[in-house]
Design goal:
This protein has 9 helices and 14 strands. By secondary structure, it is of the alpha/beta class. It folds into 2 domains: 93 residues, Roll (Ubiquitin-like (UB roll)); 138 residues, Cytidine Deaminase, domain 2 (3-Layer(aba) Sandwich). The strands form 4 sheets. The chain has a 6-stranded mixed beta sheet with strand order 9-8-10-11-12-13, with helices on both faces. A 4-stranded mixed beta sheet has the order 4-3-6-5, with helices on one face. It has a two-stranded antiparallel sheet with strand order 1-2. Helix 7 runs parallel beside helix 8.
């Protein structure tokens, strides 16, 4: 993230004895319109795909990750270029980005019409959504059980993430998604006002590095684990998800369906394992009956 992700606004700070005029750092939130150019050389077309509220920064990763986790594209090799579109705007902001696909690549734009996963309140049938994910994913959703994680290591991950949440440290207003190795090494972290955007940015960055599928890694979420976040992780082949907050019931159902280890309430030296507990290696001093 960059300085453009933060703005400073005047505020009145009030306590029990006095009020003070000062300034406060806030995370910037602005819309990003994602456009997709595709088609044959003779019949190119530009299609509006989505508008999402996001924190400026890593926009190309966000657009790439979104198109992949929504099943619109299969991999980054289908993409010829990603660039902001400079349109007339009174404030001259870069809030439109265009993804140009290579010639003759046919995107699965039907998903944008059905709008399966764009918001956590889309109201679709849970089982139907799970089946839809299975049809558009590039990876097998019954991964091998070879990504084993030491339980003691998990306790350290939120502390490591907090050190690297630069904008959150200034504003307290962002979600983060982070990718770790099974030994606890931090690989990537991305922040955004939207939890789904933070994960799309992370997956987009991993796509650019040719890291997918991410079967031998740990995804850490700074907040709760919703259905759409587990869906995006499943699309990227992630096998272990740890969230600082609570999972939803449909998130647990999806994780169980795809043999993903889902951990919630990872804080204060404690956590709950909701699915695929066999991947977490628990030492004797942590086991109680």
């Amino acid at each position: 993230m960059s300085a453009s992700s933060i703005t400073y606004l005047p505020i009145t700070k009030v306590n029990q004895v006095a009020s003070t005029e000062t300034s406060d750092a806030l995370a910037i939130e602005e819309p990003l319109e994602i456009k997709l150019e595709h088609g044959s050389k003779e019949n190119r077309q530009v299609q509006n795909i989505s508008v999402t509220m996001r924190t400026p920064g890593n926009d190309a990763e966000l657009a790439l990750g979104f198109l992949f986790t929504e099943g619109i594209i299969q991999n980054q090799k289908e993409v010829a270029s990603i660039a902001h579109s400079f349109i007339a705007c009174a404030e001259n902001k870069e809030n439109v980005i265009q993804v140009t696909l290579s010639e003759d690549i046919i995107p699965n734009v039907r998903n944008t019409e059905r709008n399966f996963y764009t918001t956590s309140s889309c109201g679709v049938c849970g089982k139907g959504s799970i089946n839809a994910i299975r049809t558009v994913s590039a990876y097998d959703h019954q991964p091998k059980d070879d990504n084993f994680i030491n339980a003691d290591l998990l306790h350290q991950l939120p502390k490591t993430l907090s050190v690297h949440q630069e904008v959150f440290a200034d504003t307290g207003g962002l979600h983060a998604s982070a990718l770790f190795t099974p030994t606890g090494e931090l690989l990537l972290v991305r922040e955004d006002v939207g939890r789904h955007n933070a994960l799309d940015k992370l997956i987009g960055a991993a796509l650019n590095k040719n890291w997918l599928p991410l079967a031998n890694s740990i995804l850490l979420l700074s907040g709760r684990a919703s259905f759409e976040l587990v869906q995006k992780a499943a699309m990227a082949g992630i096998t272990v998800i740890a969230a600082v907050g609570a999972p939803s019931s449909l998130a647990v159902q999806l994780a169980e369906e795809f043999n993903i280890t889902l951990i919630g309430f990872l804080r204060n030296e404690r956590f709950n394992i909701y699915t695929a507990a066999h991947r977490i290696l628990i030492t004797e001093h942590e086991t109680t009956h």
